[in-house]
Amino acid sequence: ELWISLEEHQDALELIMSKYRKQMLQLLQNRKGEDAEPALKIHQANSLEIESQIDRICEMGEAMRKAIQVDDDQFFKVQEKLAQLELENKELRELLSISKESFEVEREDLPD
Question: How far is CA 19 from the centre of its chain?
């Protein structure tokens, strides 16, 4: 009888320990979720802040690209205008040279 009673007691104890382990495992899993939740919220908040900063950086980059494009366009316009003025200057100098030569030829042809 003692032997049977001991086996029944061990079976009951194993059943109790089994239920205890399940409850502890469940408690630890719930606690891990609770422990991770504040960190997860902080991580999400930081992610949103970083995403916002990335968006601002992208906007600034786009503004810089537009400014560079405008600057390049202005530079090319100035270069074009400069080339045009140099060409006009060269043509005017040639006309002036021709005019001077014709004036000198006329002076030479005139009697003193």
Answer: 55
At 14-44, the pLDDT tens digits run: 999 999 999 998 888 877 766 667 767 888 8
Task: Please identify which residue in the block is written with the tokens 């719930």.
Answer: 30
Look up the pTM and report it. Answer: 0.46
Range in 3-12, 25-34, 57-66 the model is least confident about = 25-34
Q: Cα–Cα distances in Å, from 49 out to 45, 52, 57? A: 6, 5, 12
For residue 111, what are the CA distances in angstroms to 24, 98, 100, 104, 107?
129, 22, 19, 13, 8
In the block, tokens 């270069």 appear at 79
The amino acid that residue 16 corresponds to is: I
As a whole number of angstroms, the distance between CA 109 and CA 60 comes to: 72
Alpha-helical (H) ranges within the chain are 2-109
